Amino acid sequence: MTRRDFPQLETTRRGLLLGAAGLGLATASGSLNRAFAQDTPRKGGVLKLGMGGGSTTDTLDPRVMTDWVPLNQAFMLMNGLVEIDRNNQAVPELLESWEAKPGAAEWVFTLRQGVTFHSGKALTVEDVIYSINLHRGETSSAARAIAEQIKDVRKLSESQIAIELTGGNADLPFLLSDYHFLVVPEGFTDWSKPIGTGPFVYESYEPGVRSRFTRNPSYWKPGCANVDAVEVIVINDVAARTNALMSGQVHAINRLDFKTVDLLKRNPKLQIVQSAGGQHFTFLMDCTKAPFSDVNVRLAIKHAIDREQLLKVALRGYGQLGNDHPIPRTDRFFNTELPQRAYDPDKAKHYLQQAGMSDLKVELSSSDAAFGGAVDAAAIFRAAAAKAGIDVTIKRESPDGYWEKVWLQAPFSMGYWGGRPTADQMLSIAYASDAKWNDTHWKNAQFDKLLLEARGLLDDAKRKEIYWTLQEMISNDGGAMIPMFGDYLDGVSTQVQGVTPHPMFNFMGGRLAERVWLAA
Amino acid sequence: MKRIPLTAWIGLAIITLNLAALLFGPLLAPFGEEDILGGPFDPATALNWFGLDQNGRDMVSRLLFGAQMSIGVSLAASLLSFSVGLPLGFLAALRGGWVDTVLSRLVDTIMCIPVLISALVVLQALGSSLPVLIVTIALLDSTRVFRLARILGQGINVMEYAEAARLRGEGAWWLIRKEILPNAAAPLIAEFGMRFCFTFLFVAGLSFLGLGIQPPYADWGGMVKDNQQGILYGLYAPLYPAAAIALLTVGVNLVVDWLLAGRTRPQGEGR
Amino acid sequence: MTALILKRIALGVFTLWLVSVLVFAGTQLLPGDVASAILGQSATPESLAALRRDLGLEVPALLRYSHWLWGFVQGDLGQSQANQQPVAELLWPRFWNTMFLAAYAAAIGVPLAVGLGILTAVRRGGVFDRLVNIVALGTVSLPEYFLGLVLILVLAVQNPVFPSLADVYPGMGFAERLDATTLPMLTLLLVTVAQIMRMTRTAVLAVMDSAYVETAYLKGLQTGRVVLRHALPNAAAPVVNVVAFNIAYLITGVVLVEAVFNYNGLGRFMVDAVAKRDLPMVQACAMVFGAAYVLLNMTADIAAIALNPRLRHPR
Lengths: 520, 271, 315
Fold this sequence. Notes:
- The structure holds three protein chains of three kinds.
- Chain A contains 16 helices and 21 strands.
- Chain A is an alpha+beta fold.
- Chain A has a seven-stranded mixed sheet with strand order 8-9-10-1-11-19-12, sandwiched between helices. Chain A has a four-stranded antiparallel sheet with strand order 4-5-7-6, covered by helices on one side.
- In chain A, strand 6 and strand 7 form a beta hairpin.
- Chain A is globular and about 70 Å long.
- Chain C has helices at 2-29, 34-39, 45-55, 61-73, 87-122, 127-140, 144-158, 174-208, 211-218, 223-252, 255-261, 266-276, 279-307, 309-312.
- The longest helix of chain C is centred in the N-terminal third of the chain and has 36 residues, at 87-122.
- Chains in contact: A-B, A-C, B-C.
């Protein structure tokens, strides 16, 4: 069963960049830190990808995509408005540049000229407006929550559009890089055969099974669309996926099993691509229910887990320690000075005493639907918490209906968040008092006020101060115990060149097919 | 005393060994079921004779704990399935008519749906706790026992001695006890053995889909699934639980073969 | 005899109908529904409501079932709820894939198994018999996905003889298709041949012990003739039964093998459909499996009756 991940923003590594006007959003780094051969791309060959995260109910409709395989396939056929590069910066894709009026509620975007769809039609402002509007209003789009911030989208000229927001948001370009905002021709509705401006053209597609797309010879991005065709085979079982890579049936696979990465590394024909990113694993306490309503109990729990051991055993070291807040090291607003919380059973006992208890009994709802290995992680936590006088009973829930029935409802449960390229998005989605997905039900008016303030600020230094405070608040007062962030791991044959790590998700943020080439 | 062939001795020895593991397993285990001692798939040492599993736990200990789980669940399910399927099957064979039709329809309907899928639906609806697991497997399995019992019963029912008994005025219960059971005993025992082994593998299959015995409890089938990737890298980890399953199955089969040797009237089915 | 067959067919159809009711009821009991399965973690109460409306889930269960049944008897398998494609389009290619693999395995397996069964029965107690028995015991005792993995290790990873993924697509050449499906076929072979062989052996042995076979030998007939013309027909009933059972397994029970080899068959499709609570897909699969099972069952039943004169003419 595939794990449904949150809508994620995607990242692609832009090489040397086009000026992104207005916001001081730095362009991609000059240090092209490629791990592998540095030649110029070679055209030719058929790229075969084995991917997990697809099912027979997949569709290429950008409103409904929520899983890895359709995400990657969509990027083969279509382009987005804005990309996230490997340094977590928003860089232009079909929107060439942008400018914000002070207050960050009114924006003007300039469209890239000279781009054509696979059908030969030229890209116009109307196409972009139509594509954005697919997610606004009465729609079942998964990006609806983001689109709701948009009050108005209108054409200013043949090459410019204006976007007006309901409130100031300095991160609008980041929001627009969400993988749902893909551009199709105006009025387009035939999602079974999408037409886009992307590097590959539709040839065949069987949802949940395989797809084949062929190169777009007039693709506008330089150094891209190098292979003649790309085939995706959906392989949800990680063992089967690994077999396919090892026997040479596919060139690359995503989402490796943490436990066997070290073994795969020994194979000289393979390379492991490891990307630090924002995905993190959570133990969620409901702050409105006893005993978690007492902050001392929350702190006791946070000190009762051995994070290093968990990282070593659950992720085999392929990740970063978490400090009980959701902002990763790769985010430019990461609080580097917040002391890293460690396993301290004595302190945990101390906090329990502050709460007036000598010991604590809790029930943790867990399921591998939360994240692969969640139940094992729960077992490790249980063993560590026992030494702090906390008795944890693991209630294993069925994977089906976990997200509907358990997450957001059980007093103590486990969860997962994919990374977001901006701190604001992550915090707004899960930690604001009125956030739909506030899975710890934590409500702090001061936090909300500061969050709103930072959102509209165009000055990075001021924003950083606020975000540092927010992280501290969540870490010390919030209901989430976040022990670790996980790296994204892909396995790639040495035949494939041009692969790089990416902070957003596997396969170079979903755009691997666009970028790589095959060695002769 | 009848001469018991060597293979049967081997089979009996294996079964005894496993029964011992069932009863005393956890007591004999050097480490706990959940204790993490090292990294995944660490090789064998003097302390860990079979090395560590995919989570870094001692393989030998997990096997011993798993014996209780796997054998216990399979045994319970098989016994339950027989106590349901057998009387119903005989009943259907003897009574014929309405009773037979209704029961057969019900059983056929249930059997139409692939077992794994039925188990999937039930376990997802009711959760994977041990009682639910055992009862689900038992009920699904009892359909096959039913069919066997019915066919055996029918076959014997048409024999002359059965007819003679009926003419004498003997009731259905008497017929079952005195005529059908003794003659059907051998294939039934054989079937019990097969059902038992099959349940093992079935629970293992459920573990593959994430529905079998839940972690952190060990069970041999689940251990095969958890450690399976080790095979690709030439590690021995997955071979141990698989070998444990195979050993017990072989043992049971050897004894079953011995019981069936020289018996006539194999009007039963295979698995 | 015709009356018997007709009666059986009627019963079969009735059984199928019962299956559809059972499956429908079963999926209603499951937590979650297709809307929450599609939207997953990103579901909000609004988007769930909107999707449920779009999919017609607001209609009461009984009504939905009747709609489906009405469509089904007219040959319309309905539309997948999760991706709006006609179920038939999704189902039939996978159905043929499953049948192909089953046929591949059965065509080789059944003759092989029956032959081995007869051979070992005739040469009972010999080295050949013991050897075959041990191997058969071994394969029957291991989980099939384990066997599949070992085959992958030996024949795909360490020695690239066959592909590790059974990747099939429409328009594939026949030889290519055979190549892709050989490893899963071998896995299934290992599982089914052992069972059929053991039952054949038992059945033939039992018959070989009986008086008329002894008479045949005393009459001076050769072993071959004795076996083929005198023993086998009488041993046929249980053999037919186990063969039918195994063929049913090959069609309906191979979801784990499909998973290991990533084979695009009906088993995985149904598991997926159940996970998504996509009712039309689940029902369609259930009907297909049910029909296959009912047919094979019927054949086995009829064969058993036809071959046992005592049951043919009940008194």
